[in-house]
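Service request form, structural biology core

Requester: graduate student, group of Dr. S.
Request type: structure prediction, single chain
Budget code: on file
Notes: please return the result as structure tokens.

Sequence provided:
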Amino acid sequence: MKGNAATPSPETCRLEGKLFSSFPGIMFRHAEADQSAVMAFRMGEKEAALPLLRLGKEFAIAPGSADARMIGLIISALEFVSCLRLDDPLPAEVVSGEASWVPKEEYRLLAEARLQMQLIAWLTPQSERVEATGATLLALAEDPAIRAHAQEAMARAAADLGLNSARETLVRMKELADELAYLEHLRVCFLDRLAAAAAKLTLLARGVRAGTSTAESISQVIKLIGAAQRKIQGRFDDLDAQTGEIIAALRNLDQQRTFIRAGRDFLYRSFRVFEPHLDRIERHPVDGEQELPALLAPLYHFLAPRFMPVTEWLRQDRSAPKISSRSMSW
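Core staff response, request fulfilled:
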């Protein structure tokens, strides 16, 4: 839920109703049980938690009021931060559409290098495409011959785009690269780590005795994490395809920015919920078969409702606690 020109989003977590001043130490966070957004507060020695989606109805908060709108913003904000208190700043994603985190400089340079190579490929479509990533792509971008081709391509693109000079093309490319840098960062810290986790689980499976419950569990988890890889890779593929037509991307920069930011936020939310599980897989010893059940149980509980076909999930897990649809979201 984002603001618009007529009703800009508030920048801080602020609620006006008397209800919210009646409870000390209010905190907004996700519930551990089902990850729904809740308002937590102390009641004597205990903590109480009220689901935010029910707050308006339970306490007669008028739809469309400032407090109702703020509750919606808080629910959105908790996709990007772990908790909020009253008067805390809201994350930039729900205020302005900017990101509340900053990618490393190397990823901005990588995004610029990738755009440079795409522009050269547009100028010389008959030439062989160079598929390069990471350090190789950065090295290519610094090659004097490549830089000369890029300068020529920027001048040609300026004419095609109705711009005055190659420098104006470069300015647009840098604006686009600033947005794509987030995707380059997530490609490494999320997609690459997800692939490494799948590879480690496959390695761990080799040390498990066939026919045991652990063997069955790790087989299921490997299948599910493969489904997760395909889903996340698919989102990157969609983003790459949409931004790969360099002239169209530079011509429609505002539309591209909106599209990239939506993908960025989806991937970042996904990464945040995946990260604790990736950390546990990375820390698990390669010879730790006895500890595997403790690793696999929460992994299965996390992956199955998200990536297993619904009919199979219900058939295999009828005895498991019911998980609300809210917990399936990113």
